[in-house]
C-alpha cells in the first residue's frame, strides 16, 4: 500500500505494553499490494469495502480479527477503502478477547462470530462515526476497560513470557529449551503458553522474526549498502543459502527477485509513531 496514505496513532501510556499503534487508511484507488507475515495480530474495522485475501479465498469482514500468519499475501482493494486497524503487541491479543491467540492462526476471523458483545458495540459506534480521530478514542476506551478487567492469573502468565519474547526479538538463534528456562516452565508448558499468547509455536515464530529482520535490512539497503550475505548473518540465518531458502518459503520470492517486484517493508521492526 501507499505509505503516505496511512495515518498512525500512538496508544496512551497505559496501553503501550499491549498495543503497538493504530492506523487509518483511506483510498479511492484500486490497489493491489503484497504483504508479509508481520508478527503481530490485528483487529480491523472496515467502514467501506473490506479487503480481498486471495490466498485464503476470502474477503475480510466489517470486523476482522487477523491472527498470526506464516505466509505472504496479495491484497486487493476495489477503490472504496476506509479502515481502522489496531496493531497489538505480538503476545497481547488473548488478554483482550479471552480467546487463545492460536485460534486465529492463519485466519481472518469474522469479528461478529466470536460473540464478544462489547467488541460488537464498539464496531457499531465506529461504523456510525465519520470522525476517525473520535473512533480511535472509542477504541482506546474499549481497550482500557479490558485492561482494568484483566484477571491476575492471566496477567501473571503474560508477564512470564515477556523475557523469552524479548530474547527472540534480539536474536532468533535461541533454542526452545533456553526460552522455556527463562519462563521457568517445562518445554511443553512453555510451548503451550506461547501459542496461547503469541498465536504460533516459538520455533515457527523465530522464522517470522528472521524474515522481518531481513525485510528491515532490505528496506534500508540503499542507504546502508549491506549485501545479502551480511543480511543473512545479521538476521539470524545460518548462512546465505538458509536465508534464501527460508525467505522464499514465506514470501514466494528470493530476496533478489522481491526487490525487483516491490519495496520491502518491515512492520515488526519499524516504529511509525
For this entry, give a set of tags:
alpha+beta, 273 residues, six-stranded antiparallel beta sheet, 10 strands, two-stranded antiparallel ribbon, 12 helices, 18% strand, single chain
Please provide a brief summary of the model.
The strands form three sheets. A six-stranded antiparallel β-sheet has the order 1-2-9-4-7-10, covered by helices on one side. A two-stranded antiparallel ribbon has the order 3-8.
Task: Provide a descriptive summary of the structure in words.
The protein is of the alpha+beta class. It has twelve helices and ten strands. The protein has helices at residues 93-97, 117-127, 132-148, 152-160, 162-170, 176-182, 187-198, 202-219, 221-224, 228-235, 240-251, 255-261, and strands spanning 6-9, 19-27, 30-35, 42-46, 52-53, 58-59, 63-66, 73-78, 81-88, 108-110. It has a six-stranded antiparallel β-sheet, covered by helices on one side. A two-stranded antiparallel sheet has the order 3-8. Strand 5 (52-53) and strand 6 form a beta hairpin.
Strand order of the largest sheet: 1-2-9-4-7-10
Task: Output the structural class.
Answer: alpha+beta
Query: What's the main sheet like?
Result: 6 strands, antiparallel
Radius of gyration: 19 Å
Query: What percent of the residues sit in helical stretches (DSSP H or I)?
Result: 40-55%
- Tell me the total number of β-strands: 10
SSE series: EEEEEEEEEHEHHHHHHHHHHH
Strand residue percentage: 15-25%
Poorly predicted tracts of residues: none
Overall average pLDDT: 94
Quaternary state reads: single chain
> Termini, distance in Å?
18 Å
| Discrete helix count | 12
